[in-house]
UniProtKB/TrEMBL annotation:
Signal peptide bounds: 1-23
The keyword Signal is assigned to this record: yes
Name of this protein: Flagellar biosynthetic protein FliO
Keywords: Membrane, Signal, Transmembrane, Transmembrane helix
Superkingdom as given in the UniProt entry: Bacteria
TM ranges: 39-59
Keyword Transmembrane: yes
């Protein structure tokens, strides 16, 4: 407790005795003043107040409880229209990664470095794992008796 009060006393003394010139606009870090209009500040305040009011109404409507499974259902119901999918990423070296990407029915193997990206291989996508159940399991093609 004594250390905390001593630290607070030192901080207060520093702030009281610090010259006001350290915080002058245009000199602190060499930047200029912030040119924010009052309209922009008021509009941001109104937006934040509306969001807070909507959140309060939602909490009041639900009885003060947040129904997380229902919220997850709402998020899961959103359409996931993504053309590019990252299938796998591996670290090749300290400065490079190898990424396997899928886009528009094609797979791309890309080497991603610090300054450049190199396409190593491009191919059509293989048949997905949800193929018909009559397909033989992997490795069972050449087994007899």
């Amino acid at each position: 407790m004594a250390r905390l009060s001593a630290a607070c006393a030192c901080l207060t003394a520093f702030l009281v005795h610090a010259p006001a010139a350290l915080a002058q606009p245009g000199r602190l870090g060499g930047g200029g003043s912030l040119n924010l209009s009052l309209t922009r500040i008021v509009m941001a305040l109104l937006l934040c107040l509306m969001l807070a009011a909507l959140a309060a109404l939602a909490l009041k409507r639900s009885g003060g409880r947040i129904d997380l499974p229902r919220l997850r259902g709402l998020v899961a119901a959103l359409p996931a229209q993504r053309r590019v999918e990252v299938l796998e990423t591996r670290r090749a070296s300290q400065y490079a990664d190898i990424c396997l990407l899928r886009c528009d029915g094609r797979e791309y193997l890309v080497l991603c470095g610090q300054q450049q990206h190199l396409l190593l291989r491009e191919s059509a996508c293989p048949v997905p794992a949800s193929a018909p159940a009559s397909a033989a399991p992997p490795g069972a093609e050449g087994e007899d008796g």
